[in-house]
Amino acid sequence: MIKINLIIVRIPKDQLTVQRQVMSVLAGIVLSLILVGWWANHASAAKEEVQNQLEGEKAKLQRLEQVALRIEEFEKKKLRREQILEAIKKLETRKVGPRLFLDDLNMILPSDVWLSKISQRDVTINVSGYSLSNSAIADLMRLMEASPNFSDVELGPITSEVIKGEEVKSFTLNCGWESVKKLDDTKSVAAGPGAAAAGPKK
């Protein structure tokens, strides 16, 4: 009777099967690690790209905010400049104020006449002052009438007063200021008949 020992044949087959299974497991682990590494790398790249986009958007937003601030500052300066120009335009248009007709009066004021009060309303000027004589007041009236800057000079009451022991004459004068009258006439002509026909605004 012949006996064959089969154990010697089975052991290598079992080892080969185990080795194949181990290799399969190892291959699966390696593949999994590769996939995990690829996914992690992809996720990191995607995250970095998103962060870069966010930084870019933040930078754009900051630039837009700076532009908006500059525009707002420019608008404020523009408004302020327009207000200043409008104020200058009004002053140049009317040219009213005591300093202007004071300059005109000082040019013609006699040496023995001094002024105590000057007021202005529209185109009418009221002058009060003192003089050492009636003739000096008459000279002032004559010079004002001869001046192109004054018109319709009228003398008010003259009274005598004593100032520091000396008798002086107190007087008042009313007159028109031609500088403003001419300007108002120019405005009326520039407005034309259309402005009158338009009538008052409602």
Structure, explained:
The chain is of the alpha+beta class and 202 residues long. The chain folds into 2 domains: 13-94; 98-184, 2-Layer Sandwich (Gyrase A, domain 2), CATH 3.30.1360.100. The protein is built from 4 helices and 5 strands; from the N terminus they run H-H-E-E-H-E-E-E-H. Strands 1, 2, 3, 4 and 5 form a 5-stranded antiparallel β-sheet that branches. Strand 1 and strand 2 form a beta hairpin. Mean pLDDT is 76; it is low at 7-11 and 186-202.
Describe the oligomeric state of these chains in a short phrase. Answer: single chain
Bulk shape: rod-shaped
Radius of gyration: 52 Å
Contiguous helical run count? 4
**CATH topology descriptor of the largest domain:** Gyrase A, domain 2
Proportion of residues in helical segments:
55-70%
